[in-house]
Each structure stands twice: as structure tokens, then as C-alpha cells.
Amino acid sequence: MITALVDITEDFPILKRQINGHRLTYLDSAATSQKPQVVIDSIRRYYEISNANVLRSVHTLAEEATVAMEEAREKIAQFINASSPREVIFTRGTTESLNTIARAWGDKFLEAGDEIVLSPMEHHSNIIPWQQLAKRVGALLRYIDLNRDGTISVDAVRHLINDRTRIVTLSQVSNVLGTINPISQVAKLAHEVGAIMVVDGAQSVPHQPTDVQNSDIDFLAFSGHKMLGPTGIGVLWGKEALLEAADPVVFGGEMIAYVDREDATWAELPAKFEGGTPHIAGAIGLGAAVDYLNSLGMSRIEEHSRGLAEEAYRKLANISGVTVYGPAYPRTSVVAFNISGIHPHDVSQVLDAHGIAIRAGHHCAQPLMHWLDVGSTARASFYLYNSDRDIDVLVDAIEATKRYFKR
Amino acid sequence: MNLDDIYRETILDHNQSPRNYGHLEHPTKSVGLLNPTCGDQIQLELAINEGRIQDIRFSGQGCSISMASASMLTEAIKGKTIDEALALTSNFKNFVTGGQSSVSLGDLEALHGVSQFPSRVKCATLAHNALEKAMTDSAT
Q1: Hey, are the CB atoms on A405 and B123 less than 8 Å from each other?
Q2: CATH code reported for the domain at A40-295
Q3: Which residues of A are catalytic?
Q4: Residues with Cβ < 8 Å from A274, sequence gap 6 or more?
């Protein structure tokens, strides 16, 4: 039996909602997670009590706002075991973080003929910034061959890496297949040829302990809103020496040291990469989310997310006419599936009538859809407020969907 | 919410047994359209002679709403002039966003329930947008 890790109705007000006459069964956390009351309260408290711009002024409110944002940065640094809060850059989310790496580091250090290694299971946000970088500098994209079950073998990566490889980039967890990728081993291969290792942590940081030093990666991108925080805030973490070497990409307020009419010099990290007024309330909300996750323990959350995804795989794969994509084990947090003869949008529509929220579509992973040879899939995804009861509700609703469409 | 409001029997029937599905031997116009938000795609092939749609086929993949709507559209416009067909698509789009149609829509009227489901309007209008694209694109 897998129970929710938290008191749902106490901590997550939205989960009390009735949808189309049913209790809401929220199975779309890979798109965005729901927010606990403590996160909502922290944002509200900031606006009610301490609202001011950070870093600029000497009055009391500005000081409180600055301290609150920098405390959040420290919490996040500890959460991913960064060696310093200076390595934690606030962004709008994973997409902006990955774009920033491609611009800030890629444009400066890549040359024509250099190679970027990535996988076909990546989210569009970990493909297109590299496509565009490759076009700007004349680099080549090299795609890893996936195993038949949608996993990545370290050998397949080894074959692809050579002395022209400058960047290797991978999602730690696939947002469609639920695959857990061997990023530490791949990072080791990348470092052997002097390449950097970039990790898209959008689907992994919310669900398992993260240790950027132990995994020896170079850059990590993740989003606040998939880990109980608000939308519009995310993180770019990078090794300090790499961030120091890279050039800023957004120019303006707060990212400078000295400005004259013709030129400017840059502020110290992390401000160098945070031009403009940051999403202060978002950073504070993300800090509160990190506190909440720590109070539960990331190892417990990891066990819970894996338990639910693996049980959902077993139960869905047992339904006749249902195809589940990706490995049975190990997998975490997401289960993508199709029902024979019923389009995922129709599946999602019928599930919604049962109060169940899932995602249907290409999941911003069109190259992976081509690899799977499907146009789209349905996807159920789980988080700490879900239980195995939610899987049973899903299974019953899938059976009802088949009956409705006479399949 | 009642599912039968959106999935009327006529729609399920057109989805199960699409009319005019396939390819023409000698189309005078063909057009493809993709719904980028869901990956659905449709291909329309038309045989047009002196401003009149003599024959039409569609193919592609998509949800029951988009496939049924395409099937119904092909039935509704076969034999019609281009102007009549474009009047129909324009009225249909108005109809599935809660407005009235000033022309008879035939089986397409079964898609009225879509107006209550804004996220499905894109599905219902995919084939209609493809037809409009075919008529405005100079390329065949």
C-alpha cells in the first residue's frame, strides 16, 4: 500500500476541489505540481509585510526583502549540495536556465565542427537551445541511440563521445518515459574528453535527492513550479569557475559593476546572470517549498514517486488494449500510455469527466514521439500527495473510457 | 458535465467510419495542416473544376472530434462551389464558439457541444482551417 506522504486536505487546499462531481484526482504534477499552504502563505506574507525591491535601497523593507531572497538562495544551494550560494542563479525556469547555458557558455567556447551530444528523449527545452547554438557556431548535434525500452546505456554514449565533443546534455529523468538516466557515469565520460555535462533536472530535482558535487555535473537546470513552488521561478546552477568564465546574456540593472557611456563591467556572481528585478516573491516561495520538501525528506519522496510510477506501470500494462511506454523498472513519477483506438485527447476528456487530471499530447517531446512512432500519448504523473488509491481510480476510469468508446 | 454533450452519437459514428477517407488519384489541390499543441495532423486533397469541389478526400491522425469534423466537412462541401465551402467553414467556426450559423451545417451541427469545451475547439476546426489554407495558398 502506498499512501500520500502528507495530509492532503490539510496542506493542499486545491485537492479538496470537486471536479465534475468527483473528488479531484490530480495526476499532472509533471506539468506542474500543486502548492502547499505554507508556500502560498510565504508569498502572501512577502507582499503583505516586506514587499520592496532587493539589493537597491537601504530602508527596512528593502533589507527584509533582500535577506528573504538570499535566504531562499542558500536553502536551494543546500538542497542540491552546491558548494556556494553564488552558484545558484534565479531564472524563470528550466527553459530559461538551459537557454542561458547555451548562450553564456556555448557561444563563448564552441567553435565550428564541435559536437553536442544529447538524447532523443529530451524535452524541447533541452533540444532547441542546442539546435540554435549549433546553427550560430557551426557545431553538430549527435543523438544517443536509445535502447528499445527507452533507457540509455552508458556504452551508447561512449560510442558517441570523442575529442570534438564539447557539451553533453541529458535529462536526469524523462518527462515521458520516466527513465532515470545515468548522469554521473555520462558526466565521467564527458570529462574524459574535456566536455561539460549539462543536466535537465526538471523532472528529477522534485523527486529525488540532488547532489551536484557528488554527481560531478557542470550545469543543472530546474523549475520551481514542479517542486511545490510558484511558476515563473527556476534555477540555473553551475560550477563557479564555469559561471565565472561564461558571459552574461541579459544586460541591464543589477548585473553590472561599473558603467560608462561606452562600456560596462559585470557584477559578481550570482548577480552577473540576474539582470533586472528578479521574481522575489517566487524565490521566497521556492525557499518555502524547499523547507517543506526537506521536512518530508527527499529519500522518502524518491521511494514514494518510484513506488507509484512502478505500480501504475504494472496495473496499466495489465489492461487489455493499453500500451505503456518506457521501462517497467526502474522508473519514477510518470507513466505515459495509449489506449488502442482512442486518441489521448479523448482519453483525457473522459477522465476529466471522472475528476481526473492527466496530460495528453506530445509532452514537448516530438522527437521522442517519432522514436516511439506515435503522434501523442496520455500521461499520468505522481507526486507526494498521490496514493495507490489514485492509481485505482485511474484504472477504473480507463476501463470506463474503453466502454464509452466501445473498445 | 455530461460527456454525451460533446460525444454525440453522430460524432462517434463518423469517427468509427470516416467518410471520404483516403487519397484522390488526381487532386488539383492538396494541403496539410498540423495542430502544434497536440501533434494532430490532417491532409486534404481536392479535385476542383471551374470553381466547384468535384471530389475530396482527407487523411491523417487525430482525436475523435477532429477526425469526425473532417469527415463531416468533406460530406458537406462535396459538389459545392469554393465560395459556398468557405462560407460553411466560416459559419462553422462561429457555431462551435457559441455563435449561430446562417447556413445549414448538416451533420456538423452535432459538434455544437464543443462550444462548451474551449480546449477542443482547435480539434473541431482543424479540417476547416486546412480547407481555408488550401483555398488561400497559391501553391497546390
Answers
A1: no
A2: 3.40.640.10
A3: 364
A4: A89, A90, A250, A254, A255
Partner B contacted by A361 (CB < 8 A): yes
Average pLDDT of chain A, as a whole number: 97
| pTM: predicted TM-score of the whole model, two decimal places | 0.94
Q: Which domains does chain B have, with CATH numbers?
A: 3-136 (3.90.1010.10)
Residue B140 scores a pLDDT above 70: no
Q: Which CATH number fits domain A9-27+297-406: 3.90.1150.10, 3.40.1190.20, 1.10.287.1080, 3.30.1330.20?
A: 3.90.1150.10
Domain ranges of chain A: 9-27+297-406, 40-295
Closest CA to A384 of A227, A174, A179, A234: A227
Contacts of A369 in chain B (CB under 8 A): 39
- Which DSSP helix (H) or strand (E) runs through B43? strand B40-49
Kindly list the distances between the CA atom of residue A196 and the CA atoms of A187, A188, A201, A306, in Å, as whole numbers in the listed order: 8, 10, 16, 29
Quote the minimal CA–CA distance from B9 to chain A in Å.
11
Place of cell 471536479: A19
The answer to whether the Cβ–Cβ distance between B61 and A350 falls below 8 Å is no
Residue of B nearest to A346 (CA): B63
Is A369 touching B (CB cutoff 8 A)? yes
What is the β-pairing status of strands A115-118 and A165-171? parallel
- Region A144-149: mean pLDDT is 96
- Do A375 and B12 count as a contact with CB atoms less than 8 A apart? no
Q: Which of B62, B57, B58, B67 is nearest to B35 (CA)?
A: B62
Residues A350, A400: contact at Cβ < 8 Å? yes
Using one digit for the tens of pLDDT, what is the confidence trace for B13-50? 999 999 999 999 999 999 999 887 777 889 999 999 99
